[in-house]
Design a protein that fits this description.
By secondary structure, the protein is mainly alpha-helical. The chain is about 60% helix and about 5% strand. It is built from 28 helices and six strands. The strands form two sheets. A four-stranded mixed beta sheet has the order 1-2-4-3. A two-stranded antiparallel ribbon has the order 5-6. A hairpin with a 5-residue loop joins strand 5 and strand 6. Helix 13 runs antiparallel to helix 14. The longest helix has 28 residues, at about 205-230.
Length: about 675
């Protein structure tokens, strides 16, 4: 009953992503939409802290730890949140007067139920269309991504479950020497491990469900929160923001196959909330019932930034690219107000100026101090400067063609925001992200490329993903601004007919993006990462699923991560000799990788197998990802040298049991 397995996993994922953070968002009295979005970073932070506390105190890893921590934090926030509730009117007050708020909405959308319906429509359209696009390209929710990094991510979840310890240092230690611990951003693995625990389902299914939830729910809801709390947009803009969540393949689609860099993907899905808190810091969020209070902002700022950082440190640099232009814009706007004849009382310039200067200086230091070594900056440009500009403006994913129609729409919406909107500050992060998108595709290899993009290993896919966070709000607000302008000149268009027409325009823009040449190329990239057998074929996966019936729980299996056999750790729940392609290990491991097939003729190999408890081996053939072949020579001909015998076979995939051999002391090792 696959549907029951999916529903069990979905329910567990919703619990893990929302329950630990629920007490805090309730205590803060956040507005419903903001509370839904903020529950995810709160839950992530509770899980991450609980994992480290459990590691230090020896507490086994379960959902109980983040839930209890979430309750404690929620209790601590209850009193400040209660004061906020007393100071806030029960109903949603109107925005501060401006030319856009004269006719913000009429008809059904002017009522509370209508506004709630608009949010629901935006979320359903955006999330539903993303799922409808992505699931066929994946080949189903049970599929296994066939990329390099996925071996680590799936096995790291199993590592947590086996050790009952979800510390980031334990996850990093999976590929370190025995007894050593190194840090690895483990928020993704912590969340997925809890989903596996609660649902009782397999790791690939749990990983896929969490990924799809983040893309289809967390991402579009975050965009709508940004529009509702930080801009003058009304229901049309909210619907458009949710609907357009999948307008560009640069994000979230590209990061659902590239790498696959799931921790960075997790960080990026929360990035609209970073824009929300920075816009409030800069004083750019319009006054309304949706505006965050000082207490709410003081809590949400460190929580959201902390969650983004823990998900993946590169999220910090994305936050700089998007946040610094907002602070600069806010400072300049405050200066203009301060020195204008109609200065607004109480709007003090110097605190924001100091904050902006400190942020700029601190960001410059962090940018240079925490940049990875230049040897890791291996990705090269793939477009001319002219091509790159067109691709950036048209929101084309990396290494895909320009879409002229979508580019013209993007420019038209940017002009509409500039001329017809009071939320022009959205253009600042969009211009910064567009510049990064164009430059990463075209800047030649050298010092400048490393300076600008070395923080992302000069990986074009990671950098071009940033533009989605900034461009979609500009598109959404541009569409609504044009509808308001049309309604001002033709009053009939200010009501439901104009609102329906604007929603239809948003769907049309989404279609432009999903049917663009870049989207078609992106689809090929996606399917190549999911629906091939470069890492794990159908026969090999079937063997791994049968393997627990044959191999004892404590028996170690000799595997080759390059050909997918090391996924026996994640899928079969059996220890393997090599959990990932890159690792540190004692000499005995390297000896077995090179010469295990000589166990019956080489006593040293026999002793190494005995010491490491290697009782089985997987032979998945010489084919490996990245065009490699037969990296571990000790496994290449193990079924032909007499060192092991086949005990399970599916197609060409074989499980072998090691045969008795003679060690250096002359005794027979079983």
């Amino acid at each position: 009953m696959d549907i029951l397995r999916i529903l069990a996993t979905l329910g567990a994922a919703l619990l893990v992503l929302g329950a630990p953070g629920l007490p805090s968002v309730l205590a803060l009295r956040l507005r419903p939409l903001t509370a839904v979005a903020a529950a995810v970073p709160f839950s992530l932070l509770m899980a991450a802290i609980a994992a480290e506390v459990g590691h230090l105190l020896g507490i086994p890893w379960t959902i109980v730890s983040p839930l209890l921590l979430g309750l404690a934090v929620g209790a601590a926030l209850w009193l400040p949140g209660r004061r906020r509730a007393r100071a806030t009117p029960a109903d949603d007050p109107s925005p501060a007067p401006n030319k856009e708020a004269t006719h913000p909405a009429t008809g059904l959308l002017s009522r509370r139920r209508g506004r709630a319906g608009a949010l629901l429509i935006g979320a359903l359209l955006g999330g539903g269309l993303l799922l409808a696009r992505v699931l066929p390209m994946m080949g189903g929710v049970f599929a296994v991504n066939q990329t390099y990094d996925n071996v680590f991510h799936l096995n790291a979840v199993r590592h947590i479950l086996r050790l009952q310890d979800a510390s980031a240092w334990i996850v990093g230690g999976m590929t370190a020497l025995p007894g050593e611990e190194t840090y690895y951003p483990a928020a993704w693995h912590q969340l997925v491990s809890l989903v596996v625990q609660i649902s009782g389902q397999g790791i690939p299914l749990a990983s896929n469900v969490v990924m799809l939830l983040l893309a289809a729910v967390v991402w579009p809801v975050g965009l709508m929160v940004l529009m509702r709390t930080c801009t003058t947009a009304g229901p049309v803009g909210w619907i458009a923001a949710g609907t357009l969540a999948g307008v560009t393949g640069a994000f979230p689609v590209a990061l659902m196959y590239w790498g696959i860099v799931l921790p960075y993907f997790l960080s990026m899905t929360m990035m609209p909330l970073v824009v929300v808190v920075v816009a409030h810091l800069a004083g750019l969020a319009p006054r309304s019932g949706q505006q965050l209070s000082g207490v709410q902002l003081a809590v949400l700022l460190p929580v959201i930034c902390g969650a983004v950082t823990l998900a993946h440190p590169q999220g910090v640099f994305v936050g700089m690219v998007l946040g610094l232009p907002i602070l600069v814009w806010g400072t300049l706007a405050r200066a203009r107000e301060r020195f204008s004849p109609s200065a607004v009382p109480g709007h003090r310039l110097w605190p924001l100026t100091v904050l902006t200067v400190v942020a700029l200086a601190g960001s410059a230091m962090i940018w240079l101090r925490f940049r990875p070594p230049e040897s890791s900056a291996v990705w090269e440009p793939n477009a001319s400067r002219k091509e790159a500009i067109g691709q950036a403006i048209s929101l084309a994913p990396n290494a895909t063609p320009t879409s002229i129609p979508l580019g013209l729409v993007m420019l038209g919406c940017a002009v509409a925001v500039l001329l017809l909107s009071r939320s022009r500050w959205l253009l600042a992060p969009w211009l910064a992200a567009a510049a990064m998108s164009a430059l990463t595709r075209s800047t030649p290899v050298g010092d400048l490329r490393y300076l600008l993009f070395g923080n992302w290993y000069t990986d074009n896919n990671r950098t071009t993903a940033i533009i989605a966070v900034a461009a979609i709000p500009v598109l959404a607000l541009g569409i609504e601004s044009l509808q308001r302008w049309a309604g001002h000149h033709r009053p009939a268009l200010s009501g439901p007919p104009g609102q329906v027409a604007a929603a239809a325009v948003a769907v049309s823009v989404l279609a432009l993006g999903m049917l663009s040449p870049g989207a078609r190329v992106n689809q090929w990239f996606f399917e190549s990462a999911w629906q091939t057998s470069g890492l794990l074929s159908a026969d090999e996966r079937a063997l791994l699923e049968q393997l627990p019936e044959v191999v004892p729980e404590d028996a170690v299996i000799a595997t080759n991560a390059w050909n997918g056999s090391s996924l026996a750790y994640a899928i079969s729940d059996r220890p393997v000799l090599n959990t990932y392609m890159g690792f540190q290990a004692e000499p005995e491991v390297h000896l077995l990788n090179a010469e295990l097939d000589e166990a019956r003729t080489n006593p040293e190999v026999c002793d190494a197998a005995e010491e490491l408890n290697v009782e089985y081996a997987l032979d998945f053939g010489p084919q490996e990802i990245h065009g490699r072949s037969a990296s571990y020579t000790g496994l290449n001909e193990i079924s032909e040298t007499g060192a092991a015998e086949v005990v399970l076979q599916v197609g060409e995939a074989k499980l072998l049991r090691m045969l008795p051999c003679r060690g250096t002391d002359g005794s027979m090792n079983p």
